[in-house]
Amino acid sequence: MHLPESRADCATPPWPLCLARALRFTCCTILGACSILVAQAGQPESNRQMAERLAQIGQDYDRRLIAQRPDPHLARYLRHVDKEPEVRRDAFLQAKLAYENLLAGDSRTAAESFQKAKDAALAHPEEFDTNFLPIIRGYLAVSYLRMAEQANCCSMHGPQSCLLPIRGSGIHQDEEGSRLAIREYLELLEHNPGDLTSRWLLNVAYMTLGEHPEHVPQQWLIPAEKFASAAPFAQFTNVAPGSVLDLAGLAGGAVMDDFNGDGRPDLFISSSGLNGQRDQLRYFENNGDGTFTDRTSAAGLDGLIGGMNLLQADYDNDSHLDLLVLRGAGVLGELGDQPPSLLRNRGDGTFEDVTEKAGLMFAAPTQAGAWGDFDGDGLLDLFVGIESSVVAGFDVPLYQGLEQRAARPSKLFRNNGDGTFTDVATAAGLNLTGYIKGAAWGDVDNDGFPDLAIAQEYGPALLFHNRPAEGKAKPTRKFAAPLQLEPARSSSVVFFDYNQDGWLDLFIAGYAKKGSTYAAGQVAAAMLDQPHTGELSRLYRNKGARRAAESPFEDVTAAAGLNQPYVATGSTVADFDNDGWPDLYLSTGAPDYRAIVPKRLLHNRGGERFEDVSASAGIAHLQKGSAVAVGDVDGDGHQDILQVLGGEYPGDNFPRALFLNPGNANKWLALQLEGKKSNRSAIGARIAVEVETPKGTRTIHAVVSTGGSYGGSTLTQEIGLGDATKIKTVQITWPSGTRQRVENLKPNTRHKIVESEDLSAR
């Protein structure tokens, strides 16, 4: 079957878009990988050295990544392919080539090769087992679907692209890919009516054409009301298309915070690959007028590529926010042995890579990290979780070159106060080896010292209780044996006080289980009230003073309405409607191309239940999601969302999204805290705002953090006050133990509060 030339691809755009991007993003090719190695004037030598190190690791990155990630379903057909009869050999090799082209982004060529393999299986059914044809049909269908995405959502990228339910300008103008995908999905469902993944993708394909629900065969229809929200919500708008932020990349990190000290949140965005301009770490300064300026080169960051996660903190207490880049996660094998970067903010608009100088130079796959003062000395320490491939449940045969790799424990770096760190994980009792995906600090027992929660992709979530160590030798704190928590597979963790009782609760985002039903099928099953194999997230309510000795938590997932398979990758917390009850936002997806499932905004209804308002809020994006960061980019008192979109494979890249919050009538208060005896970022500080409302007095609680464990939301606490008529007091409990009372603050105002300063006259 011959297909006409492809119109679009996010990796290799069509003419004239290709020329436009070539003019915009010029780079040099080194052994097949693009790397910017021309240093800007004044770029620190350590930055250049790190850029050279990353360029060396990233040589021929895309090809090597694809080579080490063979499809497990096709792998068994290729074990002895040279000994196969000609018909079988040719079909198997066509399928292998097609799969590699699909991962590389050449969806049209992939479809042509899958079609040849399909034709061979249909013409010679006696030569193939019963599993081969369904596998090929599934990949042919997803190749067509990816063609449709590239020709429309990528090359014609707009505010409504890929937003579920798809409508308006999100309807595909180029119908070819979706039409062909529908044909294949109908064939798949005819032979396997219980294939919920194909049913989900069939409905999405019809939706891209504006033909859902009318044209969907009744037996395969997912009714329109299943895609709708349970309640209305103010609709966000994706303002990234057409702006300087309209850049395609892979899964990566995001931070929204004030790096230049002008009071406005700036943006850092990374892409997890190591392929030149596509994966360049980027820094955007907020202009204060709704626009951003790309200051990457001016900041001395050229050549610093890669990064699956980004974390911000003022680690050296100099009043300038610094940035940590974590690399190598999800790749595995030798490609995953990538160093992190600690980028010290020099306060003049530039950043210096101090990784080696700080004692943080190591090479291992990392995504999980968290800043927190675990020993209470006023200096921020750093936990870094390693994705060790030697863990129970990890399916080694899926990946190449892992069989001989040794177990690698995670790290706890104690801040020495002189710009350096020392790994004290063993001495602190934090002996942790696992496939770590998320980490967050939170003071579960209100004793003034943060405890550590861990998410594992292969294994239970863990809570390490921070306790006093015996004797006086450093460290002065030691972690108890961990409490194991469900789910069995998780991706991120969030501490927040969802019911506003003054005790930190814990949300753990469940991740997709392995099995015959892919992530999209698990979501479809839940929508249709059918049994599913999806891993559920968990919400644990802190028992507080009522806690039992065996656990500080009570599982309230079902009661809170969160017992759904969201297939979450990242999660963060923010009060999006300023009603005084913190909401949850979930980034979703999985590496598999079929894992196109909506992002979720879960509205907190009075600390009792969460309601899915994703569709009505206009944030239910279908593309792969990774890091998410939240903050008020336009200064209107309402929290906006920076969502990094894109998968792990070169052909699965996608532009980023910035969802602007339209606002509401509720009151708010923005507090930027600066520690003196405490760490300068005030991470871990507890805030209690007592307000008067028409119904009486209430207290609203917040804790200074980056909001979640995948991405960094602003450290400025933007606190919703609901229908408050007056702020009575603000009580701050600093990490040092200092208690500070602030009075006479007014709603809808911003304040900087320095530890122990008397601001009662404000």
Molecular structure report:
- With 762 residues, the chain is an alpha+beta fold.
- Helix content is 18%, strand content 26%.
- Strands 3-34-32-31 form a four-stranded antiparallel beta sheet, with no helix packed on it.
- The chain is globular and about 80 Å long.
Quickly list its features.
762 residues; alpha+beta; four-stranded antiparallel beta sheet; 12 helices; 41 strands; 18% helix
Short description:
The chain has 762 residues and is an alpha+beta fold. The chain is 18% helix and 26% strand.
Describe the biggest sheet? 4 strands, antiparallel
Q: What is the β-strand count?
A: 41
**Uncertain ranges:** 1-9, 11-40
Q: How widely separated are the two ends?
A: 74 Å
Rg on CA atoms, Å: 25 Å
Give average pLDDT, whole number: 91
Percent strand equals: 25-35%
Q: Please, how many helices?
A: 12
In percent, how helical is the residue content? Answer: 10-25%
The quaternary organization reads as single chain
Q: So what's the overall shape?
A: globular
**Strand order in the sheet with the most strands:** 3-34-32-31
State the secondary-structure class.
alpha+beta
